[in-house]
Amino acid sequence: MSAPTLSDAPTSREPRSERTYPAYSRPLWRRALLTREFAVVALLGVVYLYSFNEVPAFDGPLTLYYLFLDIAPILLIAMPMTMVIITGEIDLSVASVVGLSSVLTGVLHQDAGLSIPVAALVAVLVGGLCGAFNGFLVAYVGLPSLAVTIGTLALYRGIAVGLLGTTAVTGFPDRWTDLAKQRIVEGSSWPMILVPFLLLLLFTTWLLHFSTFGRGVYEIGLNDEAAHFTGVNVELTKFWLFVFAGAVAGFAGVYYTLRYGSARGDNATGLELQVIAAVLLGGVSIFGGRGALHGVVAGAVLIGVISSAMRLENQTVNLINIVIGVLLVLSVTSTSFLAWASGLAAGRRRARSTDRSRTSSG
Amino acid sequence: GDGDAAPGSDGGDGDVTVTMLPKNLGNPYFDTSTSGAEKAGDELGVTVEEVGPDAASPEAQVPFINTAAQQGVEALVVSANDPTAICDALDEARSAGTSVVTFDSDTDPECRDIYVNQADAGGIAQVQVDLIAEQIGDKGEVAVLSAAANATNQNAWIELMEAEIEENHPDIELVDVVYGDDDDQKSFDQTAALLQQYPDLAGIISPTTVGISAAARYLSTSNAKGRVSLTGLGTPNQMREYVEDGTVEAFALWNPADLGYLATFTAAALANGDIEGEEGDTFEAGRLGEYTVGADGVVLLGDPFVFDGENIGDFDF
Amino acid sequence: MADATLVLQDVTKSFGAVAALRSGSLTVRPGSIHALVGENGAGKSTLVKIVSGVHRRDGGRFAFQGRDADFSSTAESKAAGIAVIYQEPTLFPDLSVTENIFMGRQPLGRGRRIDRARMHSEATALFDRLGVALDPRRPARGLSIADQQIIEIAKAISLDAALLVMDEPTAALSGVEVERLFAVARSLRDEGRALVFISHRFDEVFDLCDTVTVMRDGEYVSTHAIAETDVESIVGEMVGREVGELFPKTPAPLGDVVLDVEGLSSAGVFRDVSFQVRAGEIVGLAGLVGAGRSEIARAVFGVDGYDSGAVRLGGTPVARSNPRAAIRAGMAFVPEDRRKQGLVTEGSVARNVAGVIRRGLTRAGLLTSAAENRAAAPWAARLQVKTSALDMDATTMSGGNQQKVVIAKWLATQPRLLIIDEPTRGIDVGTKAEVHRLLSDLAGQGMAIVMISSELPEVLGMADRVLVVCEGRITAELDRAEATPEKVMHAATRTGPTPGSTPTATEEVPV
Amino acid sequence: MSTALVNDPATPTRGARGTQLLGALLRSRELAVLVVLLLIVLGTTLKSNGFLFSSDGFRNLLVTPSLLLLLAVGQTLVIVTRNVDLSVGSVLGLTAYLTGRLFADNPGIPVIAVFAAGLAMGALLGLVNGVLVAFGRVPALVITLGTLYIYRGIFLTWAGSDRINASDMDPGFLALGTRSILGIPVLTLIALGVLAAVGYYLHTARGGRELYAIGSDPDAATLYGLRVTRRVLVAFVLSGALAGLAGVVYAARYGTVSSGAGSGIELQAVGAAVIGGVAIFGGSGTVWGAAIGAFLLVTINRALPIVGISDFWQRAVVGALILAAIVLDRVLANRQERRLREQQGSSAAEAAPPGPDGPPVPAGPTDPTTHHDEEARA
Ligand SMILES: Nc1ncnc2c1ncn2[C@@H]1O[C@H](COP(=O)(O)OP(=O)(O)OP(=O)(O)O)[C@@H](O)[C@H]1O
Ligand SMILES: Nc1ncnc2c1ncn2[C@@H]1O[C@H](COP(=O)(O)OP(=O)(O)OP(=O)(O)O)[C@@H](O)[C@H]1O
Ligand SMILES: [Mg+2]
Ligand SMILES: [Mg+2]
């Protein structure tokens, strides 16, 4: 139904030479390789190879296992966060939702006597609810998400800490804490948490890159008014993305609780900054409208590899934080630096070819 | 890239490495204990590496325990931020062949080989209650400024202090327990809040080094100085000024350097197979002499020491 | 003759692969109003931005007041004595109208304090000179486009500059405001200043200017004294090819009622709006700027809500406040501001064109770029969009080309009703005629069209029926035959009884 | 959010009564927060009159917020330009440690020199932020998130496990933390002095107004010819310098500097500004509002335990407060928009009365007939 036939061509009264357009202005390899995402993937490869060969014990069997266990919450939350940031919004409250979900899992299991799956389900639902509250204020009341989620960052964390004080709930059944740390295949380096993550990745990839919803997400980030004019439901899209972020954060909270076997109000404090660092490192524009998931995954894993390798080198956390900070700053400034450099190069090329282009255009 | 001489990867040619994992870095108390550990390391000829998170939370400690397991270090000496949360990680390290010694703050007994206890909880509670009772004339309102609410050791002491007060000091009322999270600013502000909330407060017990110094600093400049007594556990360097200006009469502590020293000897003894961690095992701990592993795999450093205006000048840590 | 104030000679400028200026030349003398005309994308705005230091030229000569110039920022050009009204408004919405005018050069009192009282009185004086009543203390946020443009003008003339460049300043202004602007421009000319005036409206060019320079495809074409040329030859030079008839409206047989709007009201915006549009019919909405025509269109399409009334398409009610329902029912809406509302300018041509129809492109749950490209290509071709590839961003295109992308996007939905708001605003004659021919063709094929335009000739030339909107009400309904400029004008300003206006409406007018 | 009218309360003229009314309404944005603050102080004092009437209580009421006040003022400068500075907490930690080190390593160093060093260090770190933001063309949120990690990492690496104790510092300096002049603590006086200076600058200096213009629409500011880069740089340098000053104040007030100094305070600073009515997307808001916001945040924290709410719930209350503030802003902004629309309607009617000799003509051609002819010929 979409491709018009020649007969209903709007200007067919006066037949003209039909123009055809190439689909792309640049060859495939340039489109694939000259991107921010690819740069991160390449950097990840380099850092991994270097660590594998040079860092003692990095080649051991435990490295990847612990690495994925550590970054799983970041990877999980980075999925919805990527979409939220592409719409031009931000969610700073995710780590507080992780904390709240963790506390709820603990309290519901211990005090209310619910079984772990039921408690976890409630925690995820409450996470979604937290996201819905953010989404409502941002999408329907129209408040800036930065301010809203700074507020809910304090609010949700406050509720978590208020519910449990600074005591911790421990003593979860081994069956469940072991599940959080189990390997997919006994003896492999791949922890079980990668299964839900891969499912989530698959779902998010489809949603963002291969669905009309995802096209709307990008359009909202680039120009939400125009998106509204073409029938994208801007409010609803944003609302659901915040719900998505909240629910995934809730799930991450359950994982967090089971992995460390303790539900505490201050669990995952500061995690939001790591998630955002991973997303931005992966090439997503904080202005919205640009970014892709493979870059984000590479960004999160890169942070994990660097931390792991530096810990194995007995470096302090401080140095690890410096490296991640520098990387973040370099990665975001590199874009404008590259643009500036390629502008210079293009200028030189143009200067050489001015005469040619002039004759050819005439 | 130049860490090729690091342990674990290139196997055991008698090179023993002990990893010290305090609750957090940047804490002078643990700085002192690590210096004791290093001294022990020198005497024993083992390498002591200190690693740790910047905030005192269990989940921040876990990656460092994991890393120790990856490196295959011979022994891990850890002060636990949570009795159970780090258990699984410690189990994995132990199954990778690493001996685990806890010090300062214990985990559940089954997660470690030996706990080096700075002083038994009863003794610590006792000395602090005795000190405050003496300073306030054995009657009045008393509050506790603790570290985090789920710090194992703190809670055990506070419980014992409550029991002790109830039993032997009927005129003393413990009105509140507040938490400064081992954060200067928070402890400072909590002290201010306590004084406001309980105008008749006679004394504060702060069984944590961060808390007592923050509280002392607040008291020393407020008009409650001299009216409200303060005691607890502190290091001489942090408290010297306040003892000298009269804000604080006396406080207690063990020597954290000795604690680190003993923990390292214990770890080395375990790593070398000299002891198994069973009750009754004995080992030599350098200048501290011989120790015996007690029930539940606990090694006790000794009784806490009381610092006051008379003796504080003799210490520097 | 005095020395030229501004000399540009063979100036070149490229943006990436786009050569915006190949050889721009312009010589402006003091005491003269110099028109700069050319098709969309001819490079007029780029030339202006080089003069004002927004862009730096790649090559060529640029002299201001006899000295070579090369401004690297607008601050430098301003300091040198150049005032510019840009095509796009550059206001600070949070600041007061006065502060917008005097930002960066506020009058200072003692201790380098800003003297607010003096600043406000100076602003009031400026508005008096322009003959408008604007509260100098209100924030710029929420001003109509016309008022925003007036502030831009006030800003520029307050600069007391030797050269004043105006890039399409009249695009959003009404007749009175245009006249007042022209009066001010003439007085500035008589003071011996040099002015550059860019417009697509030839009557204005011939009314105001004394010299005209024509540009085409980034190149200088010619300069004439106004007295020695006429519209026809200028258009010929601009386009470089034959332009067909400007209003090629052919009568089409009318079909059934497609759009039926009944009693639509929205508090404070419009009231009791009812009209019908038949298949094959072009209905023009005329009126003064700010009369509320766009708001009516937006409410009908559902991007805005309304309080009461009903919209039916082909007899079926259309849900309110729901653009997607409107699209599903067969409506298409080309909004008035293409950069902000019509396009995702940073998106590719393909994504823009396939933007509304992408739901239908999903195969097995997957929407791929390949499918979008395939769907977009024929529509881009049909409208002769000038682009090198389908993945080029719309940012790189001129206004006329962008408008073609927007129209292509909506035609791709194959709608029954097309609402088109200011179809040719800021578009050159060549493209204008193309758009008009397109609308006529579409009507001929049985599409119902609602066309909103502030250019009266366009409305009169293209519409089968003209609805006149005044202060949110329809005050007249005129057939093509009876629609004269006078009648429309009367209904739009309600200076007298007009056929079709309801008596109650006239009573309630607070004039 | 609060508008230009707040920033621009000029002498009223006739015909501007609507504006005046509106101005009064909007000025209440700051007033509203102030009223909440006073109510809290009042309520808590009724509960425990030591909260205000003991000399310690009064001093704490004034001195505790001064640290956050400094940060909130700096944050306002940056937010007004549509940026944000998340690195202030790390800058505070770093300068607090620097302060301690200076005293520890140079006994007898003049206090004024330490203040200068703190300011300079803060300004330098702010400059780094500013340069990266202005020249890297990257949003400040990302850059300062990066420098938050970097500065704290540098601080901790430099400090190691070294802690600054009160005994390391000059007693005269520490006395600043507790001394009062005319019953007002010195630290509060410092903060209020900074507040007054910055507030005056933002309101009455060209540079200050340009900060608002830049935040209101950065692209327009560039087209207009404002020196955007330089102004943004200055805003970041000032924010850094004030964070540096806050670091020195921190050392004076708390007497010890440990690794946790200032961590997490950046969000409180942003929160204080937002509560005080500073629009997160730039262009509007005042430092007075931000200052009141800082007072409110800190005072609530101190009041909660006294009125019997466990301090565990403090953060929840702070969060609710921030949300309430931005919702209130939205309500006020909506109301303002309505008024402006009414106002515009009436002024439009005034502006274009159909005169007898020059009736307004429809937009477009001044003489439709001739135009039509010309076009037809073309
Ligand atoms: N910043 C830019 N980046 C890329 N291309 C640009 C940029 N600015 C202008 N162009 C291109 O340069 C050409 C000339 O544009 P310009 O805006 O000068 O045209 P114009 O004559 O003012 O047209 P209009 O009448 O539509 O305003 C166009 O093809 C446009 O797409
Ligand atoms: N951003 C805005 N904020 C407040 N009021 C507005 C705004 N834009 C327009 N209005 C008001 O809404 C009414 C209709 O404005 P609008 O300019 O859209 O009408 P129009 O007939 O479509 O004119 P045109 O399309 O020719 O500009 C006017 O009263 C105008 O003052
Ligand atoms: Mg232009
Ligand atoms: Mg309109």
UniProtKB/TrEMBL annotation, chain A:
Cellular compartment(s): Cell membrane
Highest taxon above the source species: Bacteria
Membrane topology field: Multi-pass membrane protein
Keyword Transmembrane in record: yes
InterPro entries, A to Z: ABC_transp_permease (IPR001851)
Gene Ontology CC entries for this record: plasma membrane
Keyword Metal-binding attached: no
Gene Ontology terms for molecular function: transmembrane transporter activity
Keywords annotated in UniProt: Cell inner membrane, Cell membrane, Membrane, Transmembrane, Transmembrane helix, Transport
TM stretches of this protein: 33-52, 64-86, 116-140, 146-169, 190-208, 239-258, 270-287, 293-312, 319-341
Protein name, UniProt field: Autoinducer 2 import system permease protein LsrD
TrEMBL record, chain C:
Cited InterPro entries: AAA+_ATPase, ABC_carbohydrate_import_ATPase, ABC_transporter-like_ATP-bd, ABC_transporter-like_CS, P-loop_NTPase
UniProt region (Disordered), positions on chain: 484-511
Mode of membrane association: Peripheral membrane protein
Pfam family, one: ABC_tran
Matching PROSITE patterns: ABC_TRANSPORTER_1, ABC_TRANSPORTER_2
GO cellular component: plasma membrane
Database matches in CDD domains: ABC_Carb_Monos_I, ABC_Carb_Monos_II
Domain ABC transporter per the UniProt entry, residue ranges: 6-242, 252-496
One function term, GO molecular function aspect: ATP hydrolysis activity
Principal location class: membrane
Protein localization: Cell membrane
Comp. bias intervals (Low complexity): 491-511
Keywords tagged on the record: ATP-binding, Cell membrane, Membrane, Nucleotide-binding, Repeat, Sugar transport, Translocase, Transport
Xref: PANTHER family: CARBOHYDRATE TRANSPORT ATP-BINDING PROTEIN MG119-RELATED, D-ALLOSE IMPORT ATP-BINDING PROTEIN ALSA-RELATED
Protein's name according to its UniProt entry: Rhamnose transport system ATP-binding protein
From TrEMBL, chain D:
Bias (Basic and acidic residues) ranges: 369-378
InterPro entries found in the cross-reference section: ABC_transp_permease
Protein's cellular compartments: Cell membrane
GO MF annotation list: transmembrane transporter activity
Assembly mode: The complex is composed of two ATP-binding proteins (LsrA), two transmembrane proteins (LsrC and LsrD) and a solute-binding protein (LsrB).
Compositional bias of kind Pro residues: 353-365
Name of this chain's protein: Autoinducer 2 import system permease protein LsrC
GO cellular component labels: plasma membrane
Keywords of the record: Cell inner membrane, Cell membrane, Membrane, Transmembrane, Transmembrane helix, Transport
Function: Part of the ABC transporter complex LsrABCD involved in autoinducer 2 (AI-2) import. Probably responsible for the translocation of the substrate across the membrane.
Membrane topology, record value: Multi-pass membrane protein
Annotated spans, Disordered: 339-378
Transmembrane regions listed in the UniProt entry: 31-49, 61-80, 111-135, 141-160, 181-202, 232-252, 273-300
Main location: membrane
PANTHER family in the record: ABC TRANSPORTER PERMEASE PROTEIN YPHD-RELATED-RELATED, AUTOINDUCER 2 IMPORT SYSTEM PERMEASE PROTEIN LSRC
